[in-house]
Design a protein that fits this description.
- The structure holds 2 protein chains of 2 kinds.
- Chain A folds into 2 domains: about 5-115 and about 220-250, Thiolase/Chalcone synthase (Peroxisomal Thiolase, Chain A, domain 1), CATH 3.40.47.10; about 150-190 and about 200-215 and about 250-345 and about 375-395, Thiolase/Chalcone synthase (Peroxisomal Thiolase, Chain A, domain 1, 3-Layer(aba) Sandwich), CATH 3.40.47.
- Chain A contains 13 helices and 11 strands.
- Chain A is globular, with a radius of gyration of 20 Å.
- In chain A, the strands form 2 sheets. Chain A has a 9-stranded mixed β-sheet, sandwiched between helices. In chain A, strands 5-6 form a two-stranded antiparallel ribbon.
- In chain A, strand 10 and strand 11 (about 390-395) form a beta hairpin.
- Chain A is an alpha/beta fold.
- Chain B folds into 2 domains: about 1-45; about 45-125, OB fold (Dihydrolipoamide Acetyltransferase, E2P).
- In chain B, strand 2 and strand 3 form a beta hairpin.
- Chain B is globular and about 40 Å long.
- The chains are: A alpha/beta, B mainly beta.
- Bound molecules: zinc ion (ZN).
- The site of zinc ion has 8 residues of chain B, from loops.
Amino acid sequence: MPQDVWVLGTHMTPFRRYIDKDAVDLACTAALGALEDGGVGISDMDILACGTLFQAGASMGQQVQKQIGQTGIPVYNVSNACATGATALRTVILAIRAGEAEMGLAIGVEQMGKMGLLAGGSREQKNTYEPSGRFGAVMPIDGILGTDTMPGVFGQAGMEYANDNDGVGFEQFAKVAQKNHAHSALNPLAQYRKEFSLQEVMESPMQSYPNTLLMCCPTGDGAAACVLVGEERFASLNPEQRARAVKISASVLTSDPYVASGQAQPDVNTLTRNAAKAAYEQSGVAPGDLNLVELHDCFATAELIHYDNLGLCEPGGAGDFIDRGGPWRDGETPVNVSGGLISKGHPIGATGVANVYEVTTHLRGEAGDRQIEGANVGLTHVIGLGSSCAVHILEKSAS
Amino acid sequence: MVDYLVLGDEPYLQVNECKNCGARYFGRRNACGQCGSQEFQQARVSDTGTLRTFSIVHRAAPSIPTPYVSAIVVTDDGTSVRTNLINIDPTPDKVVLGMKVKLATYVVGTDDEGKEAVAFAYEPA
Ligand SMILES: [Zn+2]
């Protein structure tokens, strides 16, 4: 039986654009903050995992070490699309469970500047048509054979759910964004903190129906970090450290299994359902036990379908769930009380660590104005297209 | 413009179909993602189908005309196709989930040597 793993310390930078700091600065701020929060130092770490996507080749983990302590421990630089941060976290968990480390540091960081998420790239005007690539295409297919844009791809994922289930449409998707913008007003770490009416969400510029601008996550910069510790070492820590520690009762990473439609569009549902099922089994926690959930709302359409994928509502009932206020902070299962990716922000590599910071902070009762009172159990979820899905379930310390 | 669009008097889409499990793929394959078999045969895809899902894209890379309707069509023989929907007003009240559609082709560009590129799309049936 592998030993339990605990979050001992955690920290995140506010998400926003940082013009006078680089990614190493942000990662170091998060790392040093997490170490201090846990009452430990870099010399206590047996392993470091660092997740970043757009600078994946930059040995970011070692760059951080050179600033905060070159102790010679193994460093794993990871990238896994939007699941990058969660994969760094899970790398440390695996090392502790395997008995190769007692304590480790996981960092997620991203500096995106003002880049867009439109993907696809511009259509290059070639002089002569020559077939290339797996489809033998003579020109990029984006915009001719469907879309590569993220608001479009996730718009299609939402409309597919609407096709299969009654009571889901533009208004339900818009309500998700209305909620997350409202939640973010209470979070000082969020990139945006402005409330919008449902009408304002629906009338903001259409990006890709049904996702308007206010239903899409922004790009931004930020970092988050966690110090993790195994059960044996945990027992030797002082009572104050133990009291604030949060137990990781499930840690799961999945990829997308074969589905017939997968060759035409990414399936973001099956791997999320598989991850959730495994996490509930690992932890013995049921969806109804969750006091808060931070899930991957890169677009409003994505959040809505994940209510169903994570079992937060009755099967097919995601539209009704948002209509009756279920995921609001005073609802049945508060979802994205941080403001979510839509309003807290989405510096890609940081996201899967920042949501663990958020849930940990609530379980400790230290979330200030946005605190969910009496929170004992929480779930984090991220999904990276390609695809990878990570789910973690966290529980308040009993000691 | 892609090699799985077979041109002629009656253009059609062609898949690589796994001989072992029947999984269908557009494009070159190394092996089957469902069963791992490396044996494939070519098969013709049905020209008609239904609109499984869509998004009306208003923001795209600068050279791509907007708005356009991006769609996933499931053909009558159960093949999922990534496509645009054309010859339809790109508004949510005209584009209806589950609507019947059929394959269409059009010239999407001409290169410097005068060679035309033909694209496919689906249109209301
Ligand atoms: Zn097969």
